[in-house]
Amino acid sequence: MPAPDVRLAIEALGKFQILDQFTEGRNAYAFRARHIHLNREVFLKLYDYSDSMANDVLREPRTIVEAMRMFRSENVVELFDAEVLEIGSEKFLCLQMEFVRGESLLSLIQNEEIGQQDAVRLTAGILNGLAHLHSRRILHRDIKPANVVVTSNRTAKLTDFGSVAVLPEGQDSVIASKPSALYVPPEASGSQNGYTVRSDLYQVGMVLYELVNGPLEYNLGHYLSEQCLNQLKRAGMTFNLDDECDKSLAADAAINLLAQKQRLLGYGRRPQPYFSPQLHKIVSKACKPDPANRFRSAHEFSTRLMQANVPNWKPINEHTFRAMEWRGWDWELANGSEVVVKKSRANQSRYRRSANQHFDQLENAFVFVEFNSA
Predict the structure, then answer these.
(1) CA–CA dist 221, 95 (Å, integer)
(2) What is the C-alpha to C-alpha distance for residues 216 and 109, in angstroms, rounded to an integer?
(3) Phi, psi dihedral angles at 369 (to 5 degrees)
(4) Residues 293 and 368 in one domain
(5) For 329, how many CA atoms within 13 A lie in the half-sphere containing its CB?
(6) Please, where are the H alpha helices in 167-243?
(7) Which end of the chain has a smaller Cβ tally under 10 Å, C or N?
């Protein structure tokens, strides 16, 4: 059904007045609306629905609704209601959520608006929201930059509950959800198909990497290198790349192969030269192929993350980087015919070259500023 028809059908229900439609993301319809009876602004997300999905999809959002009515977290978008709507001959799962004025992490990352220490703080917020869900045995299963909203006061909020699942009592895993192939943890692929608390933490590790280094390559064809295809072939998997379905399966298999070897992040996006060794270790632990080697909980992950104090580097252009207010100074690194390190008293913008500091490699200059510039 075309989007305009969905919009008109929703308004015909007499419950919502549609104010705006959003096009970010292609797996659902999204609207800003006014709930007429309650006179409040809401965010509506509509997913294709069938009766066979009732136990897997509808039950979990309703569980979250109940949990959020009792306990709220500033890092989780409030979910007001979940219901099935019949529009013509089609059915949709409609999630009615708090409308947050802000931007998605994806938008901020693509615009290079996030500094390295900013990334630490935003990730800590995501982990706080996730700890809130996990304490109620709720798994998100689709944590990625597009599913985190950042408010005007720079608070990160988890949103998009179309893939949530509730851990049954006595169990520590559920069947994996696979809406976003890049973010599927190794244990959620193939015959294993299991998803746990540590699977959510794997996805948070990926988001932290992107916050610092920029968005991964989202074109799945990027992961179909000759090397990956040859490795898949040696593993007994061959694909017809002229067939779109087979090509998609090949990309999924290649991504899983890279994740199993813990090479996916670097392959999807080269790290920034300032990527702190402290954060590299944290991301590496969060994204270990074996879940047993990852952080055990969102609290453990957050505690380790908050111990990292790193310069708030941002790229100014292709060759220049700045970190403001690091150990009493503002820093600027430029990479031209030579690596130049400059500093200025904080907020004075009077940069002068640091005396007696010479670096052959840009990465060494960043290490110096982070660890030896006190």
Answers:
(1) 32
(2) 10
(3) -60, -40
(4) no
(5) 17
(6) 197-213, 226-234
(7) C
